[in-house]
Amino acid sequence: MKSDLRILPATPARTPKRAYEGLGYPLRAMLVFAATLALAVIWFMLPGERGVAPALTTAVALFVGVLVGWRTLWLSSARERSAQVLAALGAATAGIPPKLRTCMPLVLVTGDGLPALFDRNDEERFAHVGDGAIWLRVDDPQQLPRLAVALRQWRDGRAPDGVALSVAPALHVGADMLTQKLRVARHCVADAARTLGTSLPGYVAVYHRLTTSPPGLSVPAWYGVSSATRIVDGERFELMVRAAEAETQRLLGDADTSRAATTAIGAARAAALASLVGWTRRVVIGTLTDRKQPATPWELFGAAWIDCGPASGSADPWERDVQRQTCVTRATVGASPLPWPLPQQLIEATPRRYWRSPRRIAGAHALTLLACAAAVASWSAAENNEALLDRIGADLGRYSMIPAAHDNAKRDALHALVVDRDQLDRYARVGVPLRLAFGMYRGAQLLPALDTAIASYAPPPPPPAVVTLDSMSLFDSGRAQLKPGSTRAMVDALEMIKAHPDKRILVAGHTDNVGNPQSNLKLSTARAQAVRDWLIDVSGIAATQFAIQGYGDTRPIASNASDDGRARNRRVEITLVPDTPTTQ
């Protein structure tokens, strides 16, 4: 298939975006995917305080938003800059599917005589598609970096396969001007390679009339070297010259006199070729590969000399070089008919580059991101489970260390254990949450320990029931005999005692501080004994269930400085005490 493109106007129609939206590396989609994974890990897996999740979410959203915005602007700008190239390529290669587009070699052609190579029927052409390759014209070498980036997008992430430099010595009036153009081309190719992040194989095609072609010869003679590896010495060029000379010797040995003219032309071409190759190596290739220059040396993979080109005379650099070395002035040769042939043979040995679709690369990157997220999630689950076990273990330890006498603290610790047990029980019934999953959950093994600790709690015994009797209503002042009719005040105490036959009864007497303390102590004991005796007689409870105690004025419940306070301190207290079994 062959096709040619016209050069488009300076302001071409905008290229439809959807034609290239699916091409290239989906960086924005990958950023969104990575952000989604990061947020999932932050909200569902990350250990530590949950209060940091909003801050981390904001940071991730801002970071990814800035990158996506920058990428969008960059793509828009690149699309604007490459609109002419992409529109022209789309028009010429509309019938080429993207897969074939990436498989066909694509070569950028810059240098001399580009109109003669690309223009057809007096119309300017931008590209030529044919002979299994795509050839793109670059009139301004300084546009190579921008064009290379556009082509990589157009080829679904694959960079151009090479850069061909067309050199027509007859179009130059001096070697200095040619050298300057070669240095500019070398610098621009180096910039393009640096922009793409890959090397660009270089080719040199020299177009010059070596002889006058015989009538009927439609294809100009072609001599060249093409290699899949970089050419680092001149041995291959010498082999090519010797092959041309051998062909001439073969023709000279041919007895057919009808081919004498062809043989003479071949001999002249071989002689001129040897000189032109030497000049090319010194002037052209030497300038492109000289390591003293600041730009990266040209990576030469092939060179060709085509007996075709503009009219040659004594003014071009090579003709002057021949005249200087041999003192012979070559005859003027007319220009070749247009168009000149593209150096198709040069790219037949183009090095094959390993290339994968950007979507496949993105898929591999997505799997890598997913694996990283899974690794972080597994680590987070392990940390969360360790924190859960440490917390429940600390709750169990705190509960066991609190003595039963501190019931309030014991109840607080018990409440924490109940919350822990309910949490683990809920996990067992409805499933383990994601932040504890990934095969790391070990909470079930703590359920028996929690149940045992909760069941071991024993509430403290209730405080003993106390009935306080006013001594003045029971006894006369200073006496320990019950007054007549005073027993009615003890009816409530008697009912309480009968309601708790399993408890012991402590009867304690108290006085105010009036009088001698020893007398007060004896009086309080005697009054307690009198109340006990009456209770035994009335209730029928064994005397062994009773105990008496006299405290005198040692345990006042009010101030003895007032009559009311002293009256309150004169009392008899009846207390029911739980019977404690004897331990043997």
From TrEMBL:
Pfam annotation, one family: OmpA
Which keywords does the record carry? Answer: Membrane, Transmembrane, Transmembrane helix
CC per GO annotation: cell outer membrane
Against InterPro entries, the record matches this protein to: Bact_OuterMem_StrucFunc (IPR050330), OMP_bac (IPR006664), OmpA-like (IPR006665), OmpA-like_sf (IPR036737)
Q: Where in the cell is it found?
A: Cell outer membrane
Q: Where does the source fall among the domains of life?
A: Bacteria
Domain named OmpA-like is located at 462-580
Which PROSITE patterns does the UniProt entry name for this protein?
Answer: OMPA_2 (PS51123)
List membrane-spanning regions. Answer: 27-46, 52-74, 361-382
Q: Does the keyword Transmembrane apply?
A: yes
What is the organism field in this record?
Paraburkholderia atlantica
This chain's protein is named: Outer membrane protein OmpA-like peptidoglycan-associated protein
